[in-house]
Specification:
Helix content is 0%, strand content 37%. By secondary structure, the protein is mostly beta strands.
Length: 84
């Protein structure tokens, strides 16, 4: 995805099934939509991993972060959608 693509609205979405071993099936998303705020262990599009103890806070609503994986372990946010 090019930098200019990131300024456009999302063209699609998929419900996120968190996994400790599998990345998002459609590759890095452009953002996350979260129904219930909480924390998540993630791998971002650059390959950075928050680690098991540094959980990323996800707000309810739009979270403009490109994510490759959301781990199920430690996940307290819910109803998460990947925007593409």
């Amino acid at each position: 995805m090019s930098a200019s693509d990131m300024t456009r609205p999302a063209a699609g979405f998929k419900f996120v099934t968190a996994s400790d071993t599998v990345d998002l099936p459609d590759g890095p998303c452009r953002a996350l939509w979260v129904g219930t705020a909480g924390n998540a262990r993630i791998i971002d599009a650059s390959g950075n991993n928050t680690g098991a103890t540094n959980l990323f806070p996800l707000a309810a609503g739009l979270n403009p972060i490109q994510v490759c994986r959301i781990y199920s372990t430690g996940l307290t946010a819910s109803n998460i959608w990947a925007l593409y």
